[in-house]
Amino acid sequence: MAITKGAKKALRSSERKRVFNTRRKNTMNDSVKAVKKLVASGAKADAEKLISTAYKAIDKASKTGLIKKNTAARKKSRLAASVKVK
User: Fold this and answer.
1) Global model pTM greater than 0.90
2) Residue 38 Cα distances to 31, 47, 49, 79, 86, angstroms
3) Mapped to the 3 state alphabet, what secondary structure does the chain carry?
């Protein structure tokens, strides 16, 4: 348990950041899963409409440092490749 005043403040701050990070990560994962689910079911036209929301969630997670820049690029690239009509 935190003892000093500064440690208590850091604990409050990290708890607040944890809430924001988990919310942002869940949003990202849910949007990516939704696109993958549509691709698996064969509804690629619907997946193309949802891909922009997935891109937005991935970019926001990358911007805030939740995931690294190259990880975001890799996720977006793989999503685009899965949606692409073959």
Assistant:
1) no
2) 11, 6, 10, 11, 15
3) CCCCHHHHHHHHHHHHHHHHHHHHHHHHHHHHHHHHHHHHHCCHHHHHHHHHHHHHHHHHHHHCCCCCHHHHHHHHHHHHHHHCCC
Confidence of residue 80 (pLDDT cuts 50, 70, 90): very high
CATH superfamily of the domain spanning 5-83: Ribosomal protein S20 (1.20.58.110)
Look at residue 85 in the predicted model and tell me its pLDDT: 64
Could you state, in order of their start, the residue ranges of all structural domains in the chain?
5-83
Residue of 77, 86, 84 lying closest to 47 (CA atoms): 84
